[in-house]
Amino acid sequence: MQSSRSKPCSCPSLKLREVASMYFTMVAAFLVILVVALQGSAPRQSDFPYKVPLDPQGLLELSWNVSYPEQAVHFQLLIRELQFGLLFGMSDRGEFENADLAVLWSDGHNSYFGDAWSDAKGQLHMDSQQDYQLLGARRAPEGLYLLFRRAFSTCDPKDYLIEDGTVHLIYGILEKPVRSLQAINISALHGGLQRVQLLKPNISIPELPRDMKTMEITAPDVVIPSQETTYWCYMAELPEGFPKHHIIMYEPVVTAGNEALVHHMEVFQCAAQFDSFPRYNGPCDSKMKPDRLNYCRHVLAAWAMGAQAFYYPEEAGLAFGGPGSSRYLRLEIHYHNPLVFKGRRDSSGIRLYYTATLRPYDAGIMELGLVYTPVMAIPPGEDSFVLTGYCTDKCTQLALPAAGIRIFASQLHTHLAGRKVVTVLSRDGRERQVVNADGHYSPHFQEIRMLKEVVAVFPGDELITTCTYNTEDRSRATVGGFGILEEMCVNYVHYYPQTQLELCKSAVDPGYLHRYFNLVNRFNDEEICMCPQVSVPQQFYSIPWNTFNRDVLKSLYGFAPISMHCNKSSAVRFPGEWEKQPLPSITERLREPGPRCPPAPGPQPAAPAPLPLGQLRR
Amino acid sequence: MQSSRSKPCSCPSLKLREVASMYFTMVAAFLVILVVALQGSAPRQSDFPYKVPLDPQGLLELSWNVSYPEQAVHFQLLIRELQFGLLFGMSDRGEFENADLAVLWSDGHNSYFGDAWSDAKGQLHMDSQQDYQLLGARRAPEGLYLLFRRAFSTCDPKDYLIEDGTVHLIYGILEKPVRSLQAINISALHGGLQRVQLLKPNISIPELPRDMKTMEITAPDVVIPSQETTYWCYMAELPEGFPKHHIIMYEPVVTAGNEALVHHMEVFQCAAQFDSFPRYNGPCDSKMKPDRLNYCRHVLAAWAMGAQAFYYPEEAGLAFGGPGSSRYLRLEIHYHNPLVFKGRRDSSGIRLYYTATLRPYDAGIMELGLVYTPVMAIPPGEDSFVLTGYCTDKCTQLALPAAGIRIFASQLHTHLAGRKVVTVLSRDGRERQVVNADGHYSPHFQEIRMLKEVVAVFPGDELITTCTYNTEDRSRATVGGFGILEEMCVNYVHYYPQTQLELCKSAVDPGYLHRYFNLVNRFNDEEICMCPQVSVPQQFYSIPWNTFNRDVLKSLYGFAPISMHCNKSSAVRFPGEWEKQPLPSITERLREPGPRCPPAPGPQPAAPAPLPLGQLRR
Predict the structure, then answer these.
(1) Which tens digits make up the pLDDT trace of A96-146?
(2) Which of A8, A418, B164, B287 has its CA 20 to 30 A from that of A191?
(3) Closest-CA residue in chain B for A75?
């Protein structure tokens, strides 16, 4: 009676001998394919639309494409000067421990490829499930091409889950032959990390108008300083009397050979309140830099390594030129030169594509998240402390048009302690949609990202921005503010049609924070400090931090009313009462999407199995 | 170049046509198997060692076995009076919404079997992955037998994960033909729930001695009251001068025909301080019950529906008889009679197996968790509030022998709000092992459970017991205490060799709780209550509950020092300072074991794939 039904697919119950024989069949099949591959033609550029150098010398070049139907990424890795192999992989924040790796290695005679992982001590192990699938390898004059594939999600706990947002890629070069994978000593490797957005959105490119013109904002003949980090500032200006145009696209212009050095670039428009700005072409932190350049902060375009051209949606463009806007632009280039090359010349920048035939809507940029104020603080020694900023229903009710706005791009922003940022749209107390999320956010990689789906926001909606910080290396509290060691939690959303609402942010009510300071002082038997002359940062710095004081601060931020900044410009609020506003209440959260595993071999297709019992009732 | 390598297993990329043809092949294979099954002999008892009636009439009878190598359960369901089908399945706490179901249904002509799930509204859907695998069906004189199999974990998000601890089984009977699965109206079904421990431990039975004797503690000729719930009390006594013996095993004795009514039974030994106890045979809540029976609380044996015989480990036995122990025993039987049968007679009880040849060790019972005190409280309206009780390193250091103790069984205990209980062993600040865990704990199903693995506890170890409560239906705080609407968090662990340590439990320091009351009063602008004449429960009842007061209470319990009860008997502490003890600090937590999915069809076996590149370096 207990005869077990034969399974439709024999995969999960393969006997060892079957596996062994299959394995050798596979290896044979494999060799044939490789030979085919070796004879194949060079890969077409369009097969791998995204490209990034991995190392500062550009010896390793990664190209890739994304297949959303297959839920997989195809990688093409060019190794210009192959020695005895390399490691390529992904990890939470670019560390070599707990990493998911594809490894090519040679014992001096033969070469091998495998899917491996490193443990918390950096020791390599072959993965029991091989999910980096080698598709081919090819020698070419420029080097060795490796072609492999990886599903976004493998459901193997040793594998990295490829998600939207930043991915920390790591690489390491094997300079000696190794007997086995386990013999590789990660700490002795020459290696590094590169941040990219792997899962680029699959967006159809809008039609471009015939009258489109281009303008290159490039720094003329810069000698890249021989130091690891340089922010370069260059002032450009539009022709006098330049009328209003729409920027409808922009793309990077990177001087050939400097692809691995130009880390990111931004074009800012200067404040219209000043009639003129001085010329400048030099480091942004130079004492020679005119102070007035600090008034050039309105983002027109931003690019970071690995990003492609940025297209505005076909209904909208970013206004520039015309009355009421400054004709001065500031180009900022971050040169990343860890090998301290000397004398490299560069003329990189951004090429703007613009049209005089204005599109139906001006695009706008709105700031969501937290107000820059010390009342929002992070205790020291925290590995993941969360702060949340709100754009409330009351503000969107007042400031957004009845037809709503469409958010099509987003740039997340924190200072150095930021680790994750997410903005969620909530309506009637129910979370509806993620606007933008980065679970591996890095303050060193702040791109403007096109959204995979345009998000419609209507009056009465709430936009909730949550940032996660790590302060494990700090010994005193980190307060909100402009300083590099203070923190921010901001999402600059790009949307249309433009409205008057420039800023929709919040902070905890200061009165409630005062009660918190009192409470903490009393609970901890400290002398009660009711002294209003002590600043909020000073009060935070003097707290004796322990889990109770930390947890109660969390509770306060999750409970106390907020002060809303619902502003037309950074100083002008919409009319209304914005102090001691209730926190938005969320009755239904978005579910974390579970990892999508490749379907397990099901015992039967999803159809009812008829039984030969006839009618059940007798 | 981008030619994709042929995969070793074609399962994940089956074309639709292949699936369809495979499906029909399967259905054919299926019919053959069913015919074989129909001709097969009756299933052997030993194939399905565990058995439980599902409904109070005993029309549905479930037998099962557990295969740990296969990580699967085989079910045999006997349906005595089949009408038009039935639902059988599992859900978090026995509800019919969000349930994982196997469904047998008839449209009046043909019968079907399928794996289905119900959504949050109770609507049925066919599951896209069929994980209840039908193995056979057989008509017999007593009814229809269905045989099916289910893996513990399927990694299908619509499937229930079968874990250790309580499983809430549900059933529903189809009394009319239905066109389709989707047409089944769950709310109109005749159905119910049954709690069982599905994953019984796979324990080898110790050899039993030749001089073993048995003693039946059974209630003589009870007429089961015609009401849903009865706790029946019966006093038994050991012969005068009965010397010390070891109980080495016990099993239930259930009167034939009453299998669905006898819910659970316990034998308690009375306190040795009284020379005699009155006889009694009646309801435990009767006014006629002598008060002295309340002194009969020391558990000798406990059984609940679905449990089997309980065996002590071969090195140990539970002492009874002899000087210093009472010869009076109290049998308590919980009759569950929801259909209010009248006049049913019952003589159920427990059969003790004991020996005069004492085993090397006496077994003992130790109480872990929280002290019964109102200082540990749960706010109202919480869906999962957590309280933790500690058995600290200081106490085990003092009270346990150097060779340690072995815990072999455990009985978890809370009152009505309890939803989960877990005890973890921690050593040097690192969690090492789960002693016992029930993520679907029900206060209505408190078995003594044999552990799958005996747990060794040494001096200096910590035992941390965590209980999760639901108070969504309550409007005031639930404080700790003995009352049925107060709460407990206890794990009675059964171990050997017996020590003097009877109780190793904790509660928050009352002084810190007092600071909490002050803090809450100040923060919420209430009049400050420093009045010591108000009791702790009264102070908890008067708190205006909100998320802040709730969260700060959580923070307090996670921070404040504890008062330890490290006791020889419930009133005698071991010598030492036990007030204001630090909370054990945990630096490393046990990882939640991820669900073990059937292995996905991997692209290749876990061995490096050699490449025909020869030596890499040129």
Answers:
(1) 999 999 999 998 888 889 999 999 999 999 988 889 999 988 889 999 999
(2) A418
(3) B2
Distance CA A243, CA A248 (A): 15
| Cα separation of the two ends of chain A | 23
Token readout for A364 is 């706008």
Residues B583 and B429: their CA atoms lie apart, in Å, by 11
Between CA B341 and CA B58 the distance in angstroms is 13
Q: Which residue of chain A has the CA closest to B83?
A: A617
B294 DSSP assignment: G
Residues A363, A492: Cα–Cα separation, whole Å? 13
Whether residues A522 and B522 touch (CB distance < 8 A) is answered with yes
List active site positions of B.
231, 413
Catalytic residue among A74, A168, A263, A413: A413
Total count of residues recorded for chain B: 618
A581 phi and psi angles, rounded to 5 deg: -85, 145
Domains of chain B by start residue, with CATH: 50-200 (2.60.40.1210), 203-359 (2.60.120.310), 365-592 (2.60.120.230)
How big is the A-B interface in CB pairs under 8 Å?
Answer: 295
Strand blocks (E) in A261-404? 262-269, 281-283, 298-304, 310-311, 316-320, 328-336, 345-346, 349-355, 361-362, 364-370, 377-378, 385-391
Q: Which one of B604, B615, B618 makes the best mutation probe of the A interface by having the most chain A beta carbons within 10 Å?
A: B604
Residue of B nearest to A139 (CA): B613
Distance of alpha carbon A399 from alpha carbon A504, whole angstroms: 10
ipTM, 2 dp? 0.74
Give the SS3 label for residue B376. Answer: coil
Cβ-Cβ contacts under 8 Å, A64 against chain B: none
DSSP A129-184: S--SEEEEEEEETTEEEEEEEEES----TTS----SSEEEEEEEE--S--SSGGG-
- CB pair distance less than 8 Å for B133 and A612: no
CA dihedral A36, A42, A47, A50 (to 10 degrees): 130
Q: How far is the C-alpha of B119 from the C-alpha of B126, rounded, in Å?
A: 11
CA angle A333, A338, A342 (to 5 degrees): 80
Q: Is A390 exposed, middle or buried (0-12, 13-18, 19+ CB in 10 A)?
A: buried
- Chain A nearest C-alpha distance from B134 (Å): 8
Give the model confidence (pLDDT) of A249-296 as tens digits. Answer: 999 999 999 988 998 899 999 998 899 999 999 999 899 999 998 889
Q: Quote the minimal CA–CA distance from A354 to chain B in Å.
A: 38
Q: What is the mean pLDDT of chain B?
A: 86
Q: Provide, as residue numbers in chain B, all residues whose Cβ is less than 8 Å from the Cβ of A77.
A: none
Between chains, do B111 and A602 touch, taking CB under 8 Å as contact? Answer: no
Do the chains contact at B35 and A602, CB–CB below 8 Å?
A: no
Q: Which residues contact A571 (CB under 8 A, 6 or more apart)?
A: none
Is A231 tagged catalytic?
A: yes
Q: Tokens at residue B507, please?
A: 């509660």
Distance between B609 CA and the closest CA of chain A, angstroms: 5
Tokens for A509, please give them. Answer: 């009510």
From B343's Cα to the closest Cα of chain A, the distance in A is 31
Helix (H), strand (E), coil (C) string for B395-421: HHHHHCCCCCEEEEEEEEECCCCEEEE
Residue of B nearest to A40 (CA): B1
d(CA A460, CA A556): 25
As beta bridge partners, residue B66 has B73
C-alpha–C-alpha distance, residues B64 and B78, integer Å: 11
- CA separation (Å) from A471 to A236, A378, A468, A547? 39, 8, 10, 14
pTM greater than 0.95 (yes/no): no
The reported pLDDT for the residue numbered A157 is: 81
- C-alpha closest to that of B280 among B270, B272, B290: B290
